[in-house]
Design a protein that fits this description.
Enolase-like, domain 1, Uridine Diphospho-n-acetylenolpyruvylglucosamine Reductase, domain 3, about 260 residues, alpha+beta, 12 helices, single chain
């Protein structure tokens, strides 16, 4: 590790000001950022620690939505009675992230701001049509994810919470890398009042909606309908773990499992 400055912010305003003036990086759970710094893939001169900001934590039900603070840990989402009662698919997704250490350190906001191509939370946010709330604005899920490790966030913008609409039915199915528990392919399926949404993570450079699956499941919300969809391999990831063709095959398979789990 190399030398850097650490600022412990006490308020969101203080953290945003520090980001704007220092050009540093916000530190949430640190599960991705610290590893990247050790490998010199990221070399910020200043880290702004968000862990001491109370307003960034907590889970509550607001009308027909569950609002989760950005600094809420994965383990807290997984064990929350509020989340289990309103959106059990979201609690199950959080329980399947990484290992116990990652779940007890990693945060919702940190995961979304990082936007790892194989992370699980982006699939839930996009699949449920959630709203990302920052210190400046509210960003619809469809407008938030821009590309590999890229989001709509400005340099001094901080995620404060995420509002998840409660769906009629939802489930997440992940074909996980056995070592990292990241998704080779993960599919979040949600049946909402405005139609079916299907979000895929792990398969491309960023999370995306699978429109062909949404159309098929809009006509028939069944595992058989999902399995019948053919997904092209064009633009999908190729690495030592899986070919684009294999990922294309997995997408409808995992979608079918998610539909079956949704009931």
């Amino acid at each position: 590790m190399y030398p850097f400055e650490l600022t412990r912010a006490k308020t969101v305003a203080e953290a945003a000001s520090a980001l704007g003036t220092t050009g540093g990086k916000a530190l949430a759970g640190g599960q991705s950022l610290i590893g990247a710094m050790k490998l010199r893939l990221a070399q910020p001169g200043t880290l702004i620690d968000l862990s001491g900001i109370p307003e960034l934590k907590g889970i509550k039900k607001e009308g027909d939505a569950v609002v989760i603070g950005a600094m809420t840990r994965h383990a807290e989402v997984a064990s929350s009675a509020v989340v289990k009662g309103a959106i059990p698919a979201l609690a199950a997704l959080a329980q399947g992230i990484g290992d116990r250490q990652v779940r007890n350190m990693g945060t919702l906001g940190g995961s979304l701001a990082n936007n790892d191509p194989a992370a699980c939370y982006p699939a839930a946010v996009l699949g449920l049509g959630a709203t990302v709330i920052t210190n400046k604005r509210r960003i619809a899920a469809d407008d938030f994810f821009k590309g590999m490790y890229e989001t709509a966030l400005a340099a001094d913008e901080i995620i404060t919470a995420v509002s998840f609409p409660v769906p009629r039915k939802a489930a997440y199915a992940k074909f996980a890398n056995p070592a990292s528990r990241f998704a080779l392919v993960g599919v979040f399926v949600a049946q909402t009042g405005s139609g079916v949404r299907v979000a895929v993570t792990g398969a491309a450079s960023s999370v995306f909606r699978a429109k062909a699956l949404e159309e098929a499941l809009g006509r028939s919300f069944t595992a058989e309908a999902a399995k019948a969809v053919k997904v092209p391999a064009t633009g999908l990831n190729a690495d030592l773990h899986a070919s684009p063709e294999y990922r294309a095959h997995l997408i409808p398979v995992m979608a079918a499992r998610a539909v079956a789990a949704a009931g």
